[in-house]
Amino acid sequence: MSRTAYFLPYIYLISPYGEKAPMKITNSNSFGETVKNRRKQLGYTQKYISEFMGVSVSFLSDLENGKKTIELDKAIAVANLLGLDVELNERG
After folding, report:
1. Which residues are CB-contacts of 1 (< 8 A; sequence separation ≥ 6)?
2. Best CA proximity match to 53, nearest among 71, 78, 72, 84
3. Rounded to whole angstroms, how far apart are CA atoms 15 and 22?
4. CATH of domain 27-82
5. 3-class SS letters over 22-79
6. How far is CA 88 from CA 15, 26, 41, 47, in A?
7. What predicted TM-score, i.e. pTM, was given to this entire model?
8. How far apart are CA 63 and CA 57, in angstroms?
9. How would residue 11 be classed by pLDDT, with cut points 50, 70 and 90?
């Protein structure tokens, strides 16, 4: 049985209007930390985002704390709501 190496592209979260250089996201912890920092920068509470989006506060807490089994579609929606774009780029 041969093994094949799979290389995953990096995910970049980009601040709106080029405020900062793109941040390389390599795991769920860095994704969550970026979302949390942006939420705080905008002055939003987890409760406010939760009520606005119809997701639970515990979901947001799990997302911001890097829980690995978070729902991807909801995580991207939260990032978009906070004005963050999510892009996948091939390395090379």
Report:
1. none
2. 78
3. 7
4. 1.10.260.40
5. CEEECCHHHHHHHHHHHHHHHCCCHHHHHHHHCCCHHHHHHHHCCCCCCCHHHHHHHH
6. 15, 11, 24, 29
7. 0.77
8. 10
9. low
pLDDT at residue 8 above 50?
no
pLDDT number for residue 70? 87
Q: What is the pLDDT of residues 12-58, one digit of tens each?
A: 555 555 556 677 888 999 999 999 999 999 999 999 999 999 999 99
Six token digits for residue 70? 């978070």
Dihedral angle of Cα 82, 63, 32, 69, to the nearest 10 degrees: -130
77 confidence band (pLDDT: 50, 70, 90): very high
Which residues, 6+ apart, have CB-to-CB distance to 37 below 8 Å?
none
Q: How far is CA 22 from CA 4, 45, 91, in A?
A: 30, 24, 14
- Mean pLDDT over 55-78 rounds to 95
